[in-house]
């Protein structure tokens, strides 16, 4: 079942790229949607409960290296898998239009399938192969279909993205080799490492991907120059490869040595929350603003992971999934604006979108309010659990340290409110100056926005859907 | 009219449901707890409700004023192109307010608490074309939400301390860590109820539609802070520090609010300051440990302040402005509004037999008792607050009279009475302001004292009016509200903006140095290696020869 769920989007994606001349964009996008929907349904159905590895497939792959083709769904990966398939599906739906290039749909499918592969892998080498496999198509996505008004800039952003993440991957690879040699196996759940060096290398590698300050400078460029679906996949899925890796590293692979690294990660996460919020406050380009806001949200996730506690794990998973949905919605809407006005500059788009494009404005305000962590919407619970894990201190951090970080995080929430209120004031409110390009949401945009808004609301009102999976202990 | 009735009907159904739920619980001190969904996962959030006498009263106040405001709005804003979103936001607000009141789980309460804040933000910014509305909405949302973070952290501390997020279980367990929890909750309450030093957002929220002011910024949301403290009083009253701080904040706020109200030239803004001051009365009663006095004043203030704001809306409807200079002499042309608002102003000033008289006396009596050794508040503090409250009563009677005279007396203005849908709710609230005084306890000594003080305040203003013919207050410090808003309006935004600019510059020119440096290093290295592989045989030979010579020399020297 899992193999089918991985192979279908992968194969259809490659076919679409090969036969890009023979097929219309609209049909290609429909095919892609069907493939991702299949994948989503299969991953949803394969789940047998959190005690087991659902849908496990294990065959020998490269014997001399003892590498297996070993995939399965565990309670770690399931929420990530569902979110990835869901976002991949929405990206394909978004592309249902006549002027879509079939190759673009193909790239989206390959990227989604590779990311699904990362989350589904139970073999370390396979994990790494999928991890790398997702990068190259993303370069093409940014460099070829990125910002049409800035061909040089988008190429530079794509190369920058690739160099940063490949450098990070190189560190991860070295770390993985050390761990694999020590553990004498590549099976992810059997890996145990006591090496601080390997743990640090892997942690830095994933920190590039997450990203943590000061390894983040690739992100605003890449997100703002990428096409809409590229930004959504970058923020929604790619950053989660980093947090998923860190989560895995800290909880299973190197539980003990991770304690040595965790305080540094936590400080970087907390600094990132403040740093990115301040950067957001000064942005004019909406896509850059959303990109920077992602750094802050990932800061909360990293803080939670660095406590190495059960609450922290739940916080990290919830925060990652919620961020994928909320930032996905924000990037879709920013994409709608950029498509209409040719730019994401808030001054160029102008004020009063409430009057000019009412539903687009309402959807944007909804996403912004969710992103600033209003209780009752998905963004809140991840932040709350993250703060709670800090308050409870966990195993690694010291009490004064954790409580100081808690203070930073709370200040970050305040600043986050400030920059979203500023963005709403600049875009949605104000004396409307109509432009020719004013056009409200329509067709696929409506479907995608509604689907994401509904999922944000559902997770906000029923956080137990995800937290219930991580029910290792109750509050008392 | 047709496009309005679904929203009014929806509000009526909601009000009816809440009333059916609340009325049987009136007078029930223990209340009924009901767990709808038990949260036994890591998060520990249960969907649970608890309705006792206090909750029932506040529920009835919220839905009562809510329904009246919804009816009032059909005439006041019925022709607005965005009436639909406005009416829906009111309904969402009412649901959120009811959630806060009935919640028995701190997180459920927090959801209601913050959704109320969001509705307040959206409704203040209803006229988002105007810069005042945008600025007021942003300020209100930012100040209250940042203060709400105190509640968020407080809830986390409560969860860790008590092992539960259920309010009834926390209350049953008795006080633990009262000071820490109390201080955190106080931050949120001071923000939400616009108390010093976070009081400046409420007057700036006045560009919002007047019915919204009546509902959210007078009767319900701002009173939610009072409700929260009242609900948790058994826990918080264990900490003398928290109660003293609350008393001092209340004392400062009540006097400042009343003085600022006295100096205003705008009726609506004056009423906003009056709300700030009256909320402080409720907090003073809570600090004195008297929950009933506080909630009594909450209810009567809810009724008469909603009445005054809705009446103010009628005046604005008639003269097109909330400025006092545009009003005057309206008692002949708008008799119903005049008589209703007269009852409202009388209640504000504390004149017998309105509800305001009895409930304010309850507060004064509670403070007087606290000054004589009952409750946890130090006697000195209680005495201090008691005298401040008496002084505030004097100022309150004065500004209420001033506003009443400036709006309804003096030179006549052309005006006509507001439509029935607007005047009806005002009359109903006037009736409620009188009816709520039925069965109230009377404190004879305090009652006589406060009546004398009110008479003095009224007399002063009437005498000034008679002798000077105008009531201009020439006190620049008061009209500028002591400059207390400057840190929020100027310094803080400037600080954040400069920090933000600095971060952007450092990100570009500082943090980004290492990737650029590594790019340069890579280029230099490639050029260097390029030289080595020049395919020039002569150069290779030269290098080899030089190397051999060097090695030979080295061998000769070191052996």
In sequence order, what are the helices and strands of chain A, one letter per element? Answer: HHEEHHHHHHHHHHHHHHHHHH
Please identify the structural class of chain A as seen in this structure: mainly alpha
Determine the most extensive contact between two protein chains: A-B, 57 and 47 residues
Shape of chain B: elongated
Multimeric state: heterodimer
Helix content of chain B: over 70%
**Which spans of chain A of ≥5 residues are poorly predicted at pLDDT below 50?**
none
Low-confidence stretches of chain B: none
Q: How many distinct helices of chain A?
A: 20
Kindly name the structural category of chain B.
mainly alpha
Mean pLDDT of chain B: 89
Strand order of the largest sheet of chain B: 1-2
Radius of gyration of chain A: 21 Å
Q: How many strands, which pairing sense, and closed or not: the largest β-sheet of chain A? A: 2 strands, antiparallel
Report the strand count of chain A.
2
Give the helix tally of chain B.
Answer: 24
Q: Based on DSSP secondary structure assignment, what is the total number of beta strands of chain B?
A: 2
Main pleated-sheet profile of chain B: 2 strands, antiparallel
Question: Your description of this structure?
Answer:
The complex is a heterodimer of chains A (476) and B (559). Chain A has 20 helices and two strands. Chain A has helices spanning 2-18, 25-45, 78-94, 102-120, 124-133, 135-145, 151-183, 196-209, 218-225, 228-253, 255-281, 286-306, 310-341, 346-349, 353-356, 358-371, 378-391, 399-427, 444-461, 464-467; strands at residues 54-62, 67-73. In chain A, helix 3 packs antiparallel against helix 4, helix 7 (151-183) runs antiparallel to helix 8 and helix 12 (286-306) runs antiparallel to helix 13 (310-341). Chain A starts with a helix and ends in a 9-residue tail after the last helix. The model of chain A has no long low-confidence stretch (mean pLDDT 89). Chain B is mainly alpha-helical. Helices cover 75% and strands 2% of the residues of chain B. A two-stranded antiparallel sheet of chain B has the order 1-2.
